[in-house]
Amino acid sequence: MSSVTEPQGEKGIGQETPKPRHGPSSPDLIYNRIVQGLYQGRYVPGQRLSEPAIMSEYGTSRSSVREALRRLAGEGIVSLNLYRGAYIRALSREEAIDTLLLLEMLVGLSARLAAERIGIGDNRERFNATVQQLVGFEKGGEFLQFVRARNRFYKTLTDIANNREIDRVLPSMQVHLVRIQFRDSDDNLEKVRFDDYRDIAEAVLAGEPNWAEKMARQHVAHVRRSIEHLPDSAFIASEPK
Fold it and tell me: What angle, 0 to 180 degrees and rounded to 10, lies between the N-to-C axes of helices 189-205 and 209-228?
């Protein structure tokens, strides 16, 4: 997933929204900044989002703020409550696991289709380039740059898969929340993830659909199992009091 807008491009596992020719509109800008703020820790699960505060911070209209919040709500990042206003969703254990079970299927299918199509056009070169960028962060680097490299990896994978229904469903998968809420849940998980990225890449580049699907599903399953074993204290109420 430009330096400001790329985090919003995950939209599931990496779909980037094309940027308007003359720069983002006000709702786009607000959306991008809130998602980026999640990765920077300026916004956290369970936090209220005040419309007047957002209007003041970004110098925009209430209608633009509400449009951005509706978009965030449509992607499962924000909840809108008639009486309590808007707030960043906080996933329960069950919600996170359900999300990852479905995501496991979709990522696996994306990898399978990508492996089947890897030899078409410049697919191999494009995918290999994103893999090299991503694994370059294994030993460290600026976090948002890593997020963008990861987004590009998944975006290229799903672009090569070329399945419009995957593109339609993924934006509602709440992946931003899973990644942010449980980012520090397992100190060993980050190394496992980079091993997984390499395994997925190797299988896709080899043009082996069964292997690619297995590696991709295994990758998501590692995250799911980590969340399954978290203590109850790792989860907060889904709505603020």
Answer: 170
86 has which bridge partners?
A: 49, 80
Strands of the 48-49 sheet, one edge to the other: 48-49, 85-88, 78-81
CB of 34 closer than 8 Å to CB of 69: no
DSSP code of residue 210 = H
Hey, is 78 helix, strand or coil?
A: strand
Q: Which helix (H) or strand (E) holds 49?
A: strand 48-49
* Contact of 16 with 54, CB cutoff 8 Å: no
What would the pLDDT profile of 20-79 be if each residue is shown by its tens digit?
444 457 898 998 899 888 888 888 888 999 999 999 998 889 999 999 999 998 888 899
Question: What are the Cα distances from residue 87, in Å, to 150, 174, 190?
Answer: 26, 14, 28
pLDDT digits (tens, 9 = 90+) for 148-178: 899 899 999 999 999 999 988 887 777 877 8
- Report the alpha-carbon distance of residue 138 to residue 191 in Å, rounded: 8
**Cα 215 versus chain centre, distance:** 19
Identify the three-state secondary structure at position 65: helix
Q: Concatenated DSSP letters for 110-175?
A: HHHHHHHHTTSTTHHHHHHHHHHHHHTTTT---HHHHHHHHHHHHHHHHHHHT-HHHHHHGGGS-H
Residue type, 66: R
